[in-house]
Please model this.
Amino acid sequence: MNRSAWSLRRLLAVDEGQIAQLADVLIDCVEGGASVSFMHPLTPERAIEFWRGVARGVAAGERALLVAEDSHGLCGTVQLALKQPENQPHRADLAKMLVHRRARRQGLGAALMRAAEETARECGKTLLVLDTVTSGDAARLYERLGWERVGDIPGYALFPRGGPCGTTYYYRNLGLMGRGNGARG
Ligand SMILES: CC(C)(COP(=O)(O)OP(=O)(O)OC[C@H]1O[C@@H](n2cnc3c(N)ncnc32)[C@H](O)[C@@H]1OP(=O)(O)O)[C@@H](O)C(=O)NCCC(=O)NCCS
Model:
């Protein structure tokens, strides 16, 4: 499969069919051992409940939701939490960056990150923050794309089948991009 095998877009409304497909992506990631807020086994009901909440946030303009689609349906996603305290209007939190195992290691994760940064800029955001499993696949991706590592919190969460996992915080100053702080490598 090459890059043209999937396409990216921002959803401004999320229908039930898309919610079901996003639930499948989330369940696949949890089954694969990703520490993304849920324990294994994640039931379709719980996953759908989660995405319905996201859909409400999208409808309210509080969240930006990006999705990737391949010939089987939705295969990747990432979100920006746009709604922040009134003294942080320039910040968004990047969250739930998920790529189905069938679509990994083809550059989709990197493409989703770049699209999320572009969407953040369009929304007037200049500072992005995220946290992820320390030394995981995603941490490598973020560092490759030029995100700044802040620090680690050992034992922050659990892996889906149990056992502690640390988290690492990263930030990205979009205001500095194009002035020597762009993507590396
Ligand atoms: C982290 C995650 C989003 C990355 O998605 P992805 O689509 O595989 O990301 P990419 O394809 O851009 O990069 C992944 C790897 O594939 C490599 N790659 C990219 N394109 C490639 C290609 N055409 N051929 C071979 N390898 C390629 C990248 O160099 C990278 O290598 P590395 O792991 O050695 O650093 C995905 O693994 C995932 O969903 N994990 C579970 C959920 C999770 O942990 N999310 C993070 C929450 S913060």
User: Anything to note?
Assistant: The radius of gyration is 16 Å. Helices lie at 16-31, 44-59, 108-122, 137-144. The chain is about 30% helix and 30% strand. The longest strand covers residues 148-158.
